[in-house]
Each structure stands twice: as C-alpha cells, then as structure tokens.
Write a structure and sequence with these properties.
globular; 4 domains; Alpha-D-Glucose-1,6-Bisphosphate, Chain A, domain 3; 14 helices; alpha/beta; 7-stranded mixed beta sheet; 6-stranded antiparallel beta sheet
Length: 462
C-alpha cells in the first residue's frame, strides 16, 4: 500500500503514546494508518474514539474515524471529552479506544493515547512498536466491509459513576476557583458544578486549542500566574488548575501558593490508608520524600514505579496498588480502572479540607505538616542521545561521591542533605532533572550544577 508519511513521523512514536508537532511529525496520513494498524494488529471489531479541543484535532479525528472504519471496525464516537472520560468508557464498555490529544504539550503538538479494553495503555513494548512496524511495512488488508461510525453521549454516565455514593453535603460553604485553561476541564467542571453544593468560579472555560491565557501544563509556575492572582484578590478556600486533556490537576492554597502534587498525594494516601490498612501505595523516583514518609507513617506499603502514566498503571495492576501519584499532577486510583482521575483527586482533597475547615484550618494550614521539604521544578535538558548522556551524567555524579546512587528509571541519587533524580524523558530526546532538600537553595544549587554539566555534553553521541 502506498503511503506518504512525514519524514519526522518516527519522532511522534514515544514510549507511552504517539505525540508530535503538527503537521511535521504527526498529520492526517499518519493518524489514518495508526487507526488501521490498531484495528488490524489486534483484530478489533469495535473501538471508542474521543478527542480534545486542539486546533488540529478535528482533522486528525476524521482521519482516525476513516482509518478504523476502512479496516472494518465499528467506531463509537464519544465526542469531545477529557481523557479520564475515555478511560471510563473503555473500562465500563470493555472496549479498546483512543483519545486524540497532546495532553499537556504546547499548542503546536497533537497526538493519540491508545488503550486496550479496561483502559490498559499501549506502550512501545505492549503495542505501539507493533503499530509502527505494521505501518512501515504497509501491511493492511483492503476490500474489507467498511465499519460503521455511531455517536454516543457518555458524560451523564460518567458523572453518575464518579459521584456515586459521594456524600457532598459537607462541602456547603466551600468556595474554590478552577482554572480550566481553555481545555477539556470545560467539559468536566459543569458536571461537578451541577451536583456539588459548593461554589465554583471557573476561569477560561471556553475551548481554545491556541491556549490564549496560559500554557497547557498547570504544574509550571509560569502557567499558574492567572490563578495565583485570582486567589490573592478574592476570598477562596483554594484553587485548582487543569491541563489540556484534563488528566492533570494542580492545587494552589488560599494565598496562591502551589502545593507540590506529591504532597497532595501524601494527604490522599493518609486518608485512604485509614480505611485500607496496609494497602500498597505507588510512587516514583521524582515524587517528594514527604509522600513516601506519609505512606509509611500511615501503615501503607510504598511501591516504586517508573515515571509515566502507562508504567504506573502497569505496576498498579501487577501489584494491586490502591493509589499512586506523580509529581506532574497525575493521580491514579484502583477504583478508576487503575487510571488517572482528576475528579477522584479533587473529591478526596475536598473530603480532607471539609474536615479541616470545620476545625478552623485554612487549606495552607491543612497542608503545612506535609511541607517538610522543598523540591525544584523539574527541568528538561535536550540531548542528542539519552543513553550516552545518562551514562556520562552517572560518571559525573560518582565523582561527587554521593551517599547513595542507584539506577531505576534513570539515576536516583542521595547526597545526604540533598537528593533527587536524573531520568530520560519518556516523550522527548532529553533528560529530566529534579532535586529536593529541606533547604530550597541547596536543592536548586545541585540541580543547576547537573543541568550545566548535561548541557555541556548534550550533543555527545558516544
């Protein structure tokens, strides 16, 4: 079969999703053949398709629908929803599916998150590599009976699922501000506003793939400025912000101070362990040490996983982990098909805060016991070869005589008063660097030193 793929299409195939710059790395042609490969490689007869609001999404959505139906699959188009709604549909309907999105990436990107039935994500090892190889071989069967495309509304069923048995009366009197960031939280927040007896003020609810008000990643301080200013001016209990496909959530206290996601994870883990004594709780090499300490203090069993949503979900399934979180604002729940749910996260935090508020505490005061350490903002350093750069960085760190250095999903290093990690990025040709200490300046100094070194060897290929 003749195909005219973009020269840079291989760059779009990441370890845990397909994502690249449109239209040089990902375009309609590639998406069409990914859809065909997905259906034919796994023999799927019926699949779910969902999408976000990015500027290039309508044409990529049409290309995927055409590719899947040309390969004979019946397609259930659930429309424009946030990524966790796709996971809900896959889990409850027991069907494979795709979310057309570039998640938290900048506006020029687009991509696809592919899942098997029960919202099990495809990775390079569990399917993405097979799809790429099938596309490169042009291995497709033509002449099949074309599949059908039908539309299905899932948001009311989703709303019922996430709010079932939730006792919401305790939320009366709570006032929060939510920054939708012109993304898919614009779909989610009205569903919560309709049912929860609290005051939501929503910023930037209008869908706009150009992200005119802030960048898509809500965990970056520069993207929190509008929400921070809003919190400082108004009388709110706390604020939340979401990324483009609304599978990440960031929390800011009543004064606009960002609360590290792993610290929020510590709060939730402690709450869950009161009802699930001895449960396994997942963490990664980049989550704050305060999170691991909270798991142990609550009688839980910390379980380490590789950074990245697909790897955390895989570890959770294999080891029956109840809850996990990442520093990047992803929170995972066994009761949500082992996937990320910003809604479960928000509800869990609201539970804790309602109790704290009743005892006279602010959001910041509730979080204070967990804020023992200061973590740097993770920095991505572009490199030519991730393996070479990591090996050279390891040798450099060894010369600094750390207290402990081990390889797991990159380099996990402990200098005593400062600790952190250097890991290969899952989505970019880059290394990610983050450090932590009880003193922010010490963590920052160590991060700066390693970033300077990595930049000096960034173009090495041997």
């Amino acid at each position: 079969m003749k195909m005219k793929l973009q020269a840079d299409y291989r760059r779009a195939f990441k370890e845990a999703d397909i994502r690249g710059i449109y239209p040089t790395e990902i375009d309609e042609e590639l998406v069409y053949f990914v859809a065909r490969a997905f259906v034919e490689e796994f023999g799927y007869k019926k699949i779910i398709v969902a999408r976000d609001m990015r500027l290039s999404t309508p044409q990529l959505h049409e290309a995927f629908l055409k590719g899947a139906s040309d390969s004979g699959a019946s397609v259930v188009d659930v429309g424009m929803v946030h990524s966790p709604a796709l996971y809900f549909a896959s889990g409850t309907m027991n069907l494979p599916g795709v979310m057309i999105t570039a998640s938290h990436s900048p506006k020029e990107f687009n991509g696809m998150k592919l899942v098997h039935a029960q919202a099990i994500p495809l990775t390079e090892q569990s399917g993405l590599g097979k799809l790429r190889r099938r596309i490169e071989k042009g291995k497709f069967v033509d002449g099949k009976k074309r599949g059908t495309v039908s539309q299905k509304k899932i948001l009311k069923a989703y709303q019922k699922f996430v709010l079932k048995s939730y006792k919401a009366n305790k939320l009366k009197g709570i006032r929060i501000v939510a920054d939708a960031g012109n993304g898919m939280a614009g779909v989610l927040l009205p569903l919560l506003q309709e049912k929860l007896p609290m005051k939501f003020e929503v910023m930037f609810p209008k869908f706009d793939g150009a992200f005119p008000n802030r960048g898509s990643d809500p965990t970056l301080l520069k993207h929190q400025k509008p929400l921070r200013e809003k919190l400082k001016k108004g009388k709110y209990d706390f604020g939340v912000a979401f990324d483009g496909d609304s599978d990440r959530i960031a929390f800011l206290d009543e004064n606009g101070k960002y609360i590290n996601s792993a610290v929020i994870g510590a709060l939730i883990a402690e709450q869950m362990l009161k009802k699930n004594s001895g449960a396994k709780i997942g963490y990664t090499m980049l989550t704050s040490r305060s999170y691991q300490e909270a798991i142990e203090a609550g009688g839980g069993k910390p379980v380490i996983a590789r950074v990245g949503h697909a790897y955390i979900k895989e570890t959770m399934r294999k080891k029956d982990v109840l809850f996990a979180c990442e520093h990047s604002g992803h929170f995972y729940f066994k009761d949500y098909f082992f996937t990320d749910s910003v809604t479960f996260t928000l509800l869990s935090v609201l539970d804790c805060y309602a109790e704290a508020k009743a005892s006279g505490k602010t959001f910041g005061e509730m979080m204070k016991p967990y804020l023992k350490y200061q973590q740097t903002e993770d920095v991505i350093v572009k490199v030519k070869d991730k393996k070479v750069a990591l090996a050279k960085t390891e040798a450099f760190i060894k010369k600094m005589k750390p207290k402990n250095l081990k390889r797991f999903d990159g380099l996990v290093v402990d200098f005593g008063g400062v600790w952190g990690g250097v890991k290969p990025s899952v989505t970019e040709y880059a290394l990610k660097v983050m450090f932590e200490s009880s003193k922010k300046r010490e963590a920052q100094a160590m991060q700066d030193k390693l970033i300077e070194y990595i930049k000096s060897i960034a173009n090495s290929s041997h």
